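Supplementary notes for students who missed Thursday's class. We covered one full example, reproduced here. Read the sequence, then the structure, then the short commentary at the end.
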Amino acid sequence: MTATCACGRTAITVNTPPSMLGVCHCSNCKRRTGSAFGMSAYFPRKSVVRQEGDTKVYAFHHAAQGHDQQRHFCSTCGTTLFWFVSTMPGQIGIAGGCFAEQGLPEPTYSVSDAKREPWVTLPAGWQVWAD
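Structure (token representation):
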């Protein structure tokens, strides 16, 4: 599966399905995506088989969730394509929407749910964490 930025100049290919797939309603993910939530697909780092194009890195401490992040975004169009979270060293997060051509299975969880927009509803059976 290949995730691609908006302009098509950067891409990342993985050879396994996601090990975790969910949505996050925190203010940071809303700003990252320009949407009501972010969809995050996590894969074992070893499943990355190819990375193409130039990315720049935005690194920060996510105080609300108590970890550090390194977000890689396309140096041309600015799309956040993938990231690393200090509390999950063996995983790589890839923006779910960047798998636009192939799509992904249904997510299974919602985090920072206390900040979910009131008009967003979730399917039954998802795990939900308020923080």
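Commentary. The helical segments are 27-33. The longest strand covers residues 55-62. If anything here is unclear, bring it to office hours.
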